[in-house]
Sequence to fold (708 residues):
Amino acid sequence: MMKKNLLFTLFCLIIMTTNAQKNDAGSTINKDLVKNNPLVAEWKTPYETPPFSKIKLEHYKPAFEYAIATARQEVYQIAAQKSKPTFENTIVALDRSGKLLSRVSSVFYNLLSTMTSTEMQGLAQELSPMLTEYSNELYHNAALFSRVQAVYKEKDKLTKNEDKMLLEKTYKAFVNSGALLSEKDKETYNEISLQLSKLTLQFGENLLEATNEFEMLFTDKKELSGMPESSLAIAEAKAKEKGQTGYIFDLTAPSYSAIMKYADDRELRQKFYISYYTRALSGKYDNRDVIREIVSLRSKLANLMGFKTYADYVLQDRMAENPKNVYNLLDQLLEASLPVAQKEVEELNQFAETMGLEGELQRWDFSYYAEKYKNQKYNLTDEMLKPYFKLENVIDGVFNLTKTLYGLTYKENKKIEKYHPDVTIYEVYREKDFLGILYLDFHPRASKRGGAWMTSLREQSIDEKGNNIRPLVSLVMNFTPSTPDNPSLLTFDEVTTFLHEFGHGLHGLFSNVTYESLSGTSVPRDFVELPSQIFENWATDSEFLNTFAFHYETKKVIPQDLVQKIKEVNNYLSGYSFCRQLSFGYLDMMWHTIDPNQIGDIIDMEVESNSKTELFPIVQGTCMSTTFSHIFAGGYAAGYYGYKWAEVLDADAFAYFEENGIYNKKIANAFVDNILSRGGSKKAMELYIDFRGREPQVDALLKRSGLK
Fold:
């Protein structure tokens, strides 16, 4: 996501979140707190990285209160100025305010995703309304907005693109947060946003708890017929950790996907499938009412702001601009992929029948028979490839790829504190220039939410003294862990995911802009996946694979016939994959364009939304929406289409690499100069044209995917 941290949007908001109305020159701040609270004290650590070992649960709330008070004073000084509003004394000053609050927030919300606990979740529920109220009071401060408006009216006097973008973003942040509303409507806005902040947190917590609630212990290995030894070893290690004998499988990604792909027992696959898609669908973790409330409140918020739907409200600042353009893209891709997907599923159904399947192919059969058919058609399995993808070797391979393309080098730093023993930390350099710090966190644990994402513990910026503050970037995954007998051996999909997240990481590390609000991944949602998705393209390249894909036992490089098979299988079931992603995009748009008065049964509405992309018999009583954290607990509401939008960009951009050689340093440097280092300092389409020389075209994606 992005695969980037779903709390990124909140961080961006918090950077400028201040309360000028509740402050005056007489505000008091507890100075003693600085001495005793590691979250707000000076960090005398390497590169001013967080001192995780010193931070305790009881430090967070007073740190937030202190940081808020500090930011209030900073912004009070901006709003209370007697001097004429200028770009420097108002817009730039706002961008540079709230640094302490940003620091405290980044630590808390990063650990909330990676090292959570019941206590942290409870604290998050307490902090969320504080921060939302705090944000609303900033954006509804008449004196402050008056200064912003005054500068905005003279925007044509600015000459630098980055200055123009910061002014535009700042002004729109106020307007989109209700600064132009009446006092009564501002109160309504505050109430809605406060409720939404609580509900989105509740959605994510319900999903995590519901996921952790299910696990199965198998004491008889025969019950797990078909499962590879590597998956069994992980499950056995999991059981031992819990003081049990046998094999534990649960709904975390490596465990669940292994059952669905390999378990011969059809009833077992069905049980896991239904358990997975009934998460947060009943009992105390039921998310259905949460969805209804979120959708209704978002619609009310959009209407309050003068928009027909929440999608209209969100998309005004995206590359897509409006729902019509989103649907045009989705429909265009569906037209190209649906006939192919239907043929693929029919072909797979016929294959399953030859293997003894009775009746129609069901959803819990798909991954199982898709894997079997792939093995027969291409003679390629995950188990054949995994020995060549030892995690440490994959890391070396990705590091070397960035060295070849961009001249990067990495130096492990064991003096920087980790938030968990699994984390590895590196200093990153380009030639002799220090780019930033990279945290790598690979494996699942009960305290970490599922999925994979990139986030930052500090964004890049240039301070008022001209110092280039380099970023602290973190990549978080849930990859296959090691066992007592084997190292961590990744599937090819996990290798691709690592490249994806690393692309986001490069976007953060290369950032070289002045203003924090525009740095790194602070770009439109439908543009942010370009740097990540384009990096996946090297996964199937022989030259790249030959640098690191060595068998973990024999040390022999991956055979070329396997590499060729990887390339051949790359578009296996591409029509199905397209339709699956498009279904998520349509579902997201449905929830954010619907009249909330028309909301009926959540499951029925999802079925109706999926009807145009449906390829399998409907499984009654299951639901994906209650687990759709991207749009209900993160920053992708009315934005999930962005993955496909960005695929158009990445395929078109990579075609440019291919035309000139995928290791062409001139093209690689152009990608750094025009995309990776520029953040949101220019409009996304302009950045793309600066790199590519023209607007993107969809043909490259259809061709790459075998759909044209």
